[in-house]
Amino acid sequence: MTYRELRELELAALLRIHKDQRVLDLDQLLQVSVDQMHGIEIEEWPARIAEVAMWLIDHQMNQKAGEAFGEPVVRLPLKKSAKIVIGNALRLDWNTVLPAEEASFVMGNPPFVGAMLMTELQRGDLASVTGDAKSIGVLDYVAGWYFQAAAYIKSSTIRCAFVSTSSITQGEQVGILWEPLFRDQRIKIHFGHRTFCWMSEARSRAHVHVVIIGFGAFDVPVKRIYEYSNGEPNASVAEVRNISPYLFEGTDTVLRNRRYPLCAVPPMAWGSQPRDGGHLIMSEAEYKDIIKENPTSINWIKGYTGADEFLNGVSRYCLWLVDCPPSVLRAMPSVRERVDRVRSMRRGSKAQTTRALADTPTLFAQIAHKEVDYLLVPLHTSESRQYIPIGFMSPSVVASNACAIISRASIYHYGVLSSEMHMAWVRQFCGRLESRYRYSKDIVYNNFPWPQVLSEKQRTAVEAAAQAVLDARDQFPDQTLADLYDPLAMPKPLRDAHKTLDRTVDKCYRSQPFTSDRQRVEYLFELYQRLTSPLIAEKRKRR
Description:
By secondary structure, the protein is α+β, with helices and mostly antiparallel strands. It is built from 19 helices and 19 strands.
């Protein structure tokens, strides 16, 4: 396809140059040929097919050029061919395929293999090209091509572009991949196609969310960002001075894990982790059975929710035996039996840390729960939802480690986190599980820039709009949060309440309306930089 497009460009140029002129030797004018194309393919059969396909395209384009000029192009016998090397692109020295000083462009569509799905061989491939980069275990396989390309194009004017899984522009991967490329290889991003859906033409119709990133080891004055909306094939194009590794206009700064919130807001924690083999957790039927057998056990049972239970309205319970006196535990045979199973499970674990917990079988492995109201944020939710459903919980319910919790959060905090402003930040910076949102307290929440200059009137307006969202939910008591936040089925009162909240929160940042997620993220990222590097931001402003 690349060769065909180059030949099309060449033909268009020749037709313009030689318009109304008789061409005596067209073959001498045609400068693009198959032997200028080089490639690497790990399997022999596809490599051989590609070589033949190149000849076929060459023949077709020769015919097209001949028809355009009325002069046949004959390149027989075949003396030129594409050079396609069979091998592993992350293990080969690319200079053996084509010396860097002879190369102009590098492009490709590397394998889409997530960090958790790589084989040991693929992990070894990645490690072989990442040098001194840290924490590479979270990188997708495609990241290897960026490291390999950066080494190949060092101190050259070669331009590169790869179709890549969008995850390398989101979450924790960004800092791990791009920071060493910017620092050590002086890479600059020249253009970026923001996330869009890549549909396969195969029978399975597999699809994945991808980006296309163009880069080089030199800067260019004008850079372009291509934005896709609602799956439309045509992108809007913005010309910018610099493209951040998140593919919006901004500096080359990357977000790093932060232990505490950037702003003065309550800290977020992971929920409590049982690590109990399921013996401290109960279904509603099991809960009723235990209460029937041991009536006093009701004092030592709390509600229990993970992300799925919270979103789908499923009732579950847990034994919460913190401060339970030994005599009380001994008087509850059914509870004691469950605790004994927890101890056996932990003792039999291969993990030393789990075995150590066998000495305290009545307790969760990690306890984050406090006897106060809190805000619950599901860690994994569908990317199709416009908003992550979050909600207030009482201390009578323990949130599992599938959730994040914010103790003593106010209705104002709920309002900002439920707004489009925060969701734009989430969509840009959260990690992904497949394509689902994977919320992160250290990357997303702790780095989020909250409104800085907030009047009492603005705060009251956010609180009122946030309460209106909760009131709209209450109009549908028989519906789960998964039902209410289904993008196709979301009730109009709830949608309208969220839109009002969006506008109210937006105005806490600036009076001028935001028209897109990218605008919101660019504004928030600039605010983040002012908060984290105030002296640098002040110098930039003065200039």
